[in-house]
User: What shape does this take?
Amino acid sequence: MKNKGLLFVVSAPAGCGKDTILEQVLSRCENVGYSVSATTRAPRPGEVDGVHYHFRTREQFEQMIADSAVLEYTEYCGNYYGTPRKAVEDMLAEGKDVILKIEVEGAMNIRKLFPECCLVFILPPSMQELERRLRKRGTEDEETILRRTAQARTEIDIAVNYDYFVVNDELEVAVDDLIAVIRAEKFRKGRCLDMLKEIKGE
Ligand code: 5GP
Assistant: This one.
C-alpha cells in the first residue's frame, strides 16, 4: 500500500545547518526526493548546476515566471529563487515525498497552494549559538553576521506558522528528529484514509 507523495518544506535561518541536515536525511530516506531550485545568484565554489541549483540568468528566470514554470518564487538578497513546478509535480505524482528547502515567504506561498503540505522549521539552540556558528564559518564580515542574526530573529517570528520545530543542537539528533517528522506525517489519518478501503477490499 502506497501513500500519496507528500510535500515537505524545510526552512531555517542561515547558519542553522539545514544543508547538512538535509543531505543526511536524503541519504537515509529512499522515497524522499529533493526539489532543486532555480536561482539567479552566482554559483558558490563547489556548487554544481542541476545539483545544488539550476543557475539561470535573470532573463531566463523571468521567462520561467511568465511560463508559470515555477510554483513559487521570491527575491532574496537581490536574486530570484524559485521552485520548478514540473519536477515537484512529477515526483509527487510518482508517489515520492518531496522536500523543498526554501525561505519563509516561499514556505507561506507553498502552504496556500498545497494546504496539506508539512512545514518544518529548523532552529538554532540559541541566538548566541547561532552567532557563534556564523563567526566560526569565517566567511562573513562583522556587518554581515549582525545582519544575518537580525534576519534570523525575523524568520524565527514567522516560524509560529510552521507545523514542526527541529532544534539543531547535535547534528545526529536533528537528523533523526526530521526523519521522525517525515515518517509520522505519512501516517496521519487524514493522509491515508484510502488505506481503510484497501484493507477492507472495497
Ligand atoms: P542561498 O543563496 O544561501 O543558497 O539561499 C538563500 C535562501 O533562499 C535560503 O533561505 C534558501 O532556503 C532560499 N531558497 C532557495 N531556493 C528557494 C526557492 O526555490 N524558493 C524560495 N522561496 N526560497 C529559496
In short: Helices lie at 18-28, 58-66, 85-93, 104-113, 127-137, 142-158, 171-186, 194-200.
